[in-house]
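Request:
You are asked to prepare a plain-text protein record giving the amino acid sequence and the backbone structure tokens, at your earliest convenience.
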Amino acid sequence: MQTLHLAPCVKNGLAWISVALLTSCSSHAQDRRTVTEPHIPQTCVRLSAGIAAKNESLAAEDEERLDTNRIQQALDHCDHGSAVELAANGRLNAFLSGPISIPANVTLLIDEGVTLFASRDPRVFDRTPNSCGVVNHEAAGCKALIAIDDAPHAALMGEGVVDGRGGAKLLHDSITWWDLAEQARRGGRQQVPRLVVADHSDDFSIYRITLRNSPNFHLVYSNGRGFTVWCVRIKAPQRARNTDGIDPGSASDITVTHSIISTGDDHIAIKGSGTGVQHVSVIDNHFYAGHGMSIGSETCAGVSDVLVRGLTIDGADNGLRIKSNIHRGGLVERIRYEDVCIRDTANPISIDTRYDNSGSSLNSLQIPLFRDVAFKDVRIAGGGKLTVDGTDTAHATTARFDDVRLDQPQAYKQFAEHAHVSYGPGPVDFRLSGDDVRGTVVTAQTRRDSQQQTCMFPSKSSASR
């Protein structure tokens, strides 16, 4: 038996996963870097808070007291390899900001007990006049709260909080950022800020911080090599639309570890557009509410070499998920899920080539092909649906299941089509059947010792701390 402990940054006696000993780590299917715990650099300047937060909100008279300029000036003049520290000043424990950017080789450090709040004024996020805080059919109209643009070796660190205030009413209005997202269901695009966006910035690290209540995606990384997320908490309400946790796209060599995510959309969504995504490690994390450990729906430029290991998923809409369709599909291959525990999740395993075919822009064929997808030492409890779907006979999904156990096999629904599936050598509690579904049983020459995997789920209250 091997016990995978959470790092010390996950406090207050969280339980751990106890899992069977790994026989191999599929070394090609992961981040190629040697990733170690980030360290907090020395401070170049310490900024003291000038306002007080109470119950995660600010007083009305403080809502226009922006700290944007002094934070940005400190970041712009910070020595390379150093940090701008946001610190409490007695009872004053909050900063209020519009868009800021972290330069290359500089860290923004937010102390424990300190919150960086996003302004509720859409005008400070406008890309063009009045482009933010509306629903329309235009390109992205809002700047991110924190941008890392063409800034290698930048970082966001600390025990503090970045709060996007997605559920708070906009200044001089009666709606929230999340209300705009709901309005966009009827057509159009919600023009709302993302919380943290890193673009063309190699070796970006985010460490120990809490991200909460983003108006849209919490953390986006694209067009770079080297992205580390370590001991991060991401929190938004279960029904806050489009509040993805972590979205990497057009990137390689990514590690997400020792983190907790509970949100209103995908916990992690690996986006295979642009130049695709390669070499990802998602190791020792806990997911609660949300739409799953996802690949897609854009897979047109490919996703490959992904390792998900030591994951608990508790009470989510989806668990392990690959999704695309014939208008945004592409090759997804060499995907490994190992030592995973899933509980009370509607779709514990979902490989879906028919996801969301709606949309007027879907006017060309980009056919999904999912191959070499392996599940090893997976435990599922609480029922749900298992889906393994290929596009057609020429684009059949190939999947392997080894030691995949269901608590009550008869309680699970299943759908399979155009799939080539192997089972074993460890026990598997189901056999998939359907149109163009082929199954083979793998028998080891030497029977390995039976090893009981026990899933221990941390309390859901840990996600809110």
Q: What stands out?
A: The domain at 217-465 is CATH 2.160.20.10 (Pectate Lyase C-like). Helices lie at 68-76, 177-183. The CA atoms of residues 325 and 356 lie 7 Å apart.
